[in-house]
Fold:
Amino acid sequence: MKAAFTGHRPESFQFTHDSDEYYDLEQMIWKEICHLIEDGCDTFYCGAARGADIMCGEIVLTEKITRYPDVKLICAIPFKEQAKGWGIIWKMQYQELLRGADKIVQMCDGYEPGCYHIRNRYMVDNSDVLLAVYNGEPKGGTAYTVNYARKKGKKIIIINPNTMTKTVIPAREI
Structure:
């Protein structure tokens, strides 16, 4: 079984990186990733974007090092310079994530319109389940990816960072 991640950038959260709420969110995500691994998920697709993507990828790498060495992390990046305009801390986390990945798949040579959607469709198309850190906003890349996974009949696990609740949308035949 394979899973993909999608989620909001940190500025979309209603709390800061050093808050109790951020820690609680991280623990909810960690628990879900461990459930996926225990249920037979051995491959995770991560878009390696700031925020939820990097958080999820770091959790997978930690689990790979500490308990589940056979788990694979595939970083699907939209283009090589994805992190160019980021702050130094995010750039360091991004580079660490790419170094720890089992495979890096680059969608486009450089930035082009739609490259993030190409990346998101690739991850959903190659996975069985989508783990989304999603607040329900109807616009943006996370909404696009959740809706695409719905159309593809994928199982979707949504963790809402605003309410700290989990919703599961079961897979369906398409």
About this structure: Residues 20-38 form the longest helix (19 residues). The chain has a mean pLDDT of 94. Residues 13 and 87 are 18 Å apart (CA to CA).
